[in-house]
Amino acid sequence: MRASHPQARIDPRLPDAPTPIRGSLVSAVPDTVPGSYFAVPPLRPKQKFEIAFHKMTSPSLLVRSAMFTSFDKGFDIGPDFGSNPSDIAKLYAYTTENLAMAYLVTGAVLPTVFHQDPRYFRKETGSVKSRILWALRAEVVAYSDTGKLMPNYAHLIGFGTSAAWANVYLPSENVSFASTMKRYGLRFAVSGGFNLMREFDVMNGIKSRFHHHDVTEVDGVDSSETSSSRAH
Question: How many domains does the chain have?
Answer without folding.
Answer: 1
